[in-house]
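Hi L.,

You mentioned the student needs an example of a multi-chain input paired with its predicted structure. This one should do, with 633 residues in total across all chains.
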Amino acid sequence: MTAILFIEQVLNGLQFGVMLFLMAAGLTLVFGVMGLINLAHGSLYMVGAFAAAAVAGATGSFLLALAAALGAAAAAGALVELLVIRRLYARDHLDQVLATFALILIFSEGTRWAFGSFPLFLDIPDYLSGPVTLPGGIEYPLYRLTIILTGLVIAAGLFWLISRTRLGIRIRAGESDREMIAALGVDISKLYTLVFALGAALAGLAGAMVGAIQSVQVGMGEPVLILAFVVIVIGGIGSIKGALIGAILVGMTDTLGGLLLPEVFKLFMEASAASTTGSALASMLIYILMAGVLIWKPQGLFGGQA
Amino acid sequence: MSRENMINATLLLGLAVVPLYAWATDEPFTITLATRVAILALAGVGLNIALGLGGLVSLGHAAFFGIGGYAMGILASHAQSYTPLMEVPFLIEGTKSMPVIWITALAASALAALLIGALSLRTSGVYFIMITLAFGQMFYFFAISWPAYGGEDGLSIYIRNDFPGLNTLDPIQFFGICFALLALALWLNARLAHSPFGLALNATRQNAQRVETVGLSPFRLRLAAFVISGAITGLAGALFADLNRFVSPTMFSWQMSGEIMVFIILGGVGRLYGPVAGAALFITLEHFLGGLSEFWHIYLGALLLGVVLFARGGVIGLLAGRKVAHD
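Structure written out for the whole complex:
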């Protein structure tokens, strides 16, 4: 294995991690502010991807497709919040799990009804396709590099939003004491809708950007949702910083584990057995990482008292 | 006899009479549907011990369902091909005997529940939901990427396993086995709920701190409930695999966990017979709505949403009225 391959895989891991962060950030915000566990977050990811594929198919413009993904996911998020989620804040987690599970069924089957069961494809635009040469002579796909940069810019924007703006102050205040900020004259239900739509838009953007690498199909959101849960468990619920570090940790572990574990097993096993054992174990690696973090820090790396 | 008891008796009787009628009129498909109801209800009864009694919202019970299924698949496939399961350090042969398979399924899923429970019960609330979901997914990916037992394609078993004295290939006799096990699990659940352990567990759900101050350990109570719960769901998995004569990673999928939980909610949370009512309703809906529309999950989703938002007692709650609330 060469150093170039290794660096490429590190970048792939970073790209995967950044995408996971976009999902996890919305989830952790919604949990932190509203105390709600939202299984339907993966459906919003899917809505974003489908909106992008449909608009790209109709207009041929990738930027319009991304805008459509943001808009559609935010609109779907706001609608769902107004109709359903709003009634769940005061309920226990079991009700929240079930109602959002019901939303998944409705979203998935609704999308299958509207778009059919066959996967759609979203093409990478010409100006973002092809490789780019990085310092050190490493060739890396420009599109994936764009994803990494976009994700990092959004992460920086989120930190700025939460720590520097009036909205961010309200969000943090809502996290610590919702009754108090309602008493201070902040329209708390409008704030909740806004936070939910923001999280949904991030998920939709992630769906659209990943949709151009993978295929756009019904059920694409749930595997990512479960990984985003792992990220949040590792990072600590409600912490954006935890979500970023957890996401990159999970992305790296998953990508590098699949590459390195079979090699490690080859040191003391025969090649074919090593690659099957290695890849089977690699598929479990992030969960083992999660279990490790749980034993060490049950509240996650950056979690307060949830 | 209270109204709820009457509904429970009617439910159980109905579940027994429908397949008997189908047997008399020679409609084996209906018997298979009833067998599915009995098996899925058994899985629900398992989860209900953790969820209803212990208040543990586990979204990873498909792990135990799948382990039970694979216990059957692995043992039966070795018996089918006459190859031993392992030779060192001692010889283990495959088997086609249901009781042996059941014991293996119970033991294997109880062991998995002990490990998963010991880790996930360090946390509570939302963390617990996410962690059980994640561990369930771990088994799913392991089953897909481990090629020895079929990987993604799963394992087919050509002939249903044997039970001494019965012909399991006859649908009504296999239904009888599943029904008897469901009745046994319901009886066990009822006994458990009124035992000192069940009372302490119930108290832990309502106020863990108080339980701790009287000298009981909430963690150990919850872990015990989680292990019993996982073992029963594992047994249901073994039966489910035997019904289909097929095991695949789908049994581990998170949708399976969701569905098992849906049975409980449709029937009514914390009701002894909730899973039976829920599984019966689910299979009926699947059969009739599935015939009407390919997209019947939309209606299922809408119904589930309606039950969660507006009718929290589920079917039994609707029929029997509110329970005299203690909590």
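You could point out the following to them. The mean pLDDT of chain B is 88. Residues 3-320 of chain B form a domain with the ABC transporter involved in vitamin B12 uptake, BtuC fold (CATH 1.10.3470).

Best wishes,
N.
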